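fyi for ur records
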Amino acid sequence: QYQLVESGGGLVQPGGSLRLSCVGSGFRVAYYAIGWFRQAPGKERERVACISAGGTSTNYADAVKGRFSISRDNTVNTVWMQMNGLNAEDTATYYCAAWATSNCRSSLPGSWGRGTQVTVSS
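which gave:
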């Protein structure tokens, strides 16, 4: 069974940091572009960051540029997102997702994890 499994969420104070992980279970993520998305209650899902299969291309939403960093190590089948300078607007459920291509696309990915909750609060 193919799955993406997120971890690393939690409660953090404003200004704090978290590192989210996304592991491919049952398949190799090395061949696929991976994105991080988030959705807060009452808001639309938002694309946060994306990384190509080889890791040579990344892009970020304007809201997180300079604060979040996406990376991957295909040898351990994992994609990470380092989140620094967190604020209350970053509170959301974060999902990783895979496109069936090596490059990020504007369309929604076809494979999704179940998400990990990030709450930024004092």
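The chain has a mean pLDDT of 96. thats all i got for now
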